[in-house]
Design a protein that fits this description.
two-stranded antiparallel sheet; mainly alpha
């Protein structure tokens, strides 16, 4: 009977979606020149979010690498469909919380049910709005702060909606195939246009706009796959996971981003440090595979020349992107000194930098505005208060992750936690030389991991307690 009820529930939802799609198609055909189709789409999306928020989250993650920039009539841009879906998810999520608390106030949740990183995350969201009083453009700062806050709240969504192995499986189905398609697509275009690797034009016709966001996106999945292959000894199809590792690895090589490569070296080193003493052969096998791959690259003339050029340009102060970074790092420090306590306002760096005619030259016009460092940008825009809140958030995440590892022996959950820690570490290292949290392709995975890691740790704890209880019952019997 339970299976019948579940099946009927899903059939009803599918039928409702079908009717809504037909109705929306008719409205679009008749009223295509008016705002009515957009309003209808928002209304239908709101209903779906209310009825099945987990399903909408999976749809959002499927669409994540393929979102596109859309400009509203007021010249406000949004990433479609991820940002509208995420905004609806967050709004209805908190609305449900408020209504449920007002209708039937429950006692405080148990300690293990609380989102363990909620306090530092909430403080950082609040701090994002504090420097609004100093901003040179109130609209830009408020728009940016609200947008960033919605991204940050993805952690709350992940913790609330990903509650068991079944939801983890659905999360995998919605993220990995989509990411594989995006990485294979981009890799093929980059290899075909390898002579343009240093220009943004090489990414025309791909789901990504530049090598930094593409490499960071692929790196998250590469590290999670590598962690599972190294640490999960349970039964699963290792051939498929090895193929995924190879695809994401090739995708990372052809992105030619020095920041991505550096962050991966640090993250993989951290990951290998988690291998236990009795399994050192895994380090040897991994090191051997990397050595073989590097030898193949060296023997491929065109790729070898590009890799050597990228590595040698790290300390070349005549290199255009290096000059742009130094200029922006210096400007970020100067802006920080002007308002060291609460900063100049979220998004103020781009406004103040562009307004300084002495800084905007032939170099900087080639690169998107930003401090080229998430840490320096936080200092410039949010001051010491924001930087301390940011560091508290980072420390709280890793502190919780390391504590969870001490109590988890299950290979599946242990591999996930190590993979999530290493993925977050790689992004944080890359943030030292790039600012990527203003785009959905990086911001959503980054903040989603903040909620996913404690959710996985609590799943592992519950399963362990259930196993011990079952053993105890058998012993009594």
């Amino acid at each position: 009977m339970n299976l019948v009820r579940i099946a009927s529930k899903h059939l009803s939802l599918i039928a409702l979606i079908g009717v809504c799609c037909v109705a929306f198609g008719m409205i679009l055909a008749i009223y295509s020149e008016t705002p009515i189709p957009v309003l209808c789409a928002l209304a239908v999306s709101s209903v779906l979010v209310f009825l099945a928020p987990d399903l909408v989250l999976y749809v959002l993650l499927i669409c994540l690498p393929f979102s596109f920039r859309y400009f509203l009539p007021s010249q406000v841009e949004i990433q479609t469909p991820t940002e509208p879906l995420l905004g609806l998810l967050i709004a209805i999520f908190w609305l449900k919380k408020i209504v449920n608390r007002a209708i039937s106030p429950d006692p405080a949740p148990q300690e293990e049910e609380r989102f363990p990183i909620a306090l530092p995350l909430t403080v950082y969201i609040a701090v994002t709005f504090v420097p609004t009083i100093n901003t040179p453009d109130l609209f830009v700062t408020l728009k940016g702060a609200f947008r960033a806050s919605v991204y940050m709240m993805t952690g709350f969504l992940a913790y609330e909606l990903i509650r068991n192995r079944q939801s983890l499986h659905r999360l995998f189905i919605s993220t990995f195939p989509s990411a594989l398609v995006a990485v294979v697509w981009t890799s093929c275009v980059l290899i075909y246009q390898i002579d343009q690797w240093q220009w943004r034009s090489a990414y025309l016709g791909t789901p990504f706009t530049n090598h930094a966001s593409y490499g960071s996106f692929a790196g998250v999945f590469f590290l999670i796959v590598l962690s599972r292959l190294l640490f999960d000894r349970s039964n699963y199809d290792r051939v498929i996971w090895t193929i995924m590792l190879f695809i994401f690895g090739i995708g990372l090589l052809v992105c030619f981003s020095r920041g991505v490569w550096l962050s991966l070296i640090v993250a993989v080193g951290f990951l290998l440090m988690q291998i236990k003493t009795g399994e050192q052969h895994k380090k040897v096998l991994f090191a051997g595979a990397v050595t073989i791959l590097l030898l193949l690259i060296v023997n491929f003339p065109m790729a070898s020349n590009i890799v050597q050029e990228r590595v040698s340009s790290v300390f070349d102060f005549q290199f255009a992107s290096n000059q742009a970074r130094l200029l922006r790092w210096g400007q970020a420090l100067l802006l920080f000194l002007e308002s060291p306590i609460i900063g100049n306002g979220y998004g103020a760096f781009a406004i103040l930098y562009e307004a300084d005619a002495s800084l905007v030259g032939e170099y900087t016009a080639q690169f998107q505005l930003g401090a080229h460092s998430e840490y320096l940008q936080v200092l410039a825009e949010l001051g010491i208060v924001g930087f301390v809140a940011w560091m508290w958030l980072v420390i709280a995440f890793f502190r919780y992750g390391f504590r969870a590892l001490k109590h988890i022996d299950d290979g599946f959950y242990r591999s996930l936690i190590i993979g999530l820690l290493s993925a977050e570490l790689s992004l944080l290292v890359h943030f030292a030389v790039n600012n990527l949290l203003n785009g959905d392709a990086i911001a959503i995975p980054f903040w989603l991991i903040y909620g996913l890691l404690p959710a996985v740790a609590i799943m592992a704890k519950r399963e362990r307690e259930s196993e011990l209880a079952a053993i105890g019952r058998r012993g009594v019997a």
